[in-house]
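Running this now, will post back.
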Amino acid sequence: FVVGEYEKHLENQIKLGIKTTGYKRNADCGIRALLLVQIDDRFLGDWLITDLTAGIIQNQVLPQLAQGRKSASVTRYFATLKSICNHAVLNEWLKRNPCSEAQVSQAVKKEAEYDIGEKISSDRISAIIAAAGKWKLHIAFAASTGLRSGEQRGLKWKHVDFDKGFVNVVQAAKFDNSVGTPKTKAAFRSVPLQDHILTALREHRVSSQWSTDDDFVFPNTTGGCLGMPRMLQDGLLPACKKAGVDPIRWHHLRHYYASKLLDALQDDRWTIQRLLGHSSINTTTKIYGHWLRSDEKDRVLKERVSGIQF
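Update: finished.
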């Protein structure tokens, strides 16, 4: 699967003025989605592009892309795959594009409930972290802080308050690895760190060659901003595979954090909203409100209502 070559091709197209940065942003989203696809116990990124067929794309790739996503997103991600294969055809790595005979409409049956967070078990996350090797801290940090991937990638040592035990979110990495402001005003926030994460961060800083205040906490191999595809392809997906669990997206680690907050803080939605960096409580409720329902709460509610004299 020629993701790296395709990314270089797009960067060159942007320099020549043929493609826009917006086009690459959409392509990056598509690549992240494609890297999560599994075919015969292997991630798509491990496949040779010459082994892809129209049948595999129709029967395995598209159904996985359609899980938990709206049809417009699936269409965009499929367009990215088609563009990658076109690039392979032009370079004579493929004789023809296997996407030409696949149909998105056959894979997308209805609009997915894409805005509802998936609740993931602690055992699953623990297994992934245990199998993550050198990516262990990257994944554990995400699962215990709920930072968006761009916020974590843009984090520098000066943003970690070791004395108070907080991480300050004041910037975020973008799709092109440039660093700018966070997603919204509400995304500017301070998030408490668990003691074991603080200890791991101290040890990580001591052992890292990138340890000054202006260095990234989670840099790439040259000290620059770490790219999201590498976090997935080299870190999270292999860890899922080694742990023997279904693959998750990086954003699922944020969902996991939200689930733990809801378990601990229950109806204190303002605090949950603030820690997640949502613009409004409505956003928090829309994504995670269904988790607040439980048999115990239903029982208490029934008792309260039963005691009302109508």
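The radius of gyration is 21 Å. More later if anyone needs it.
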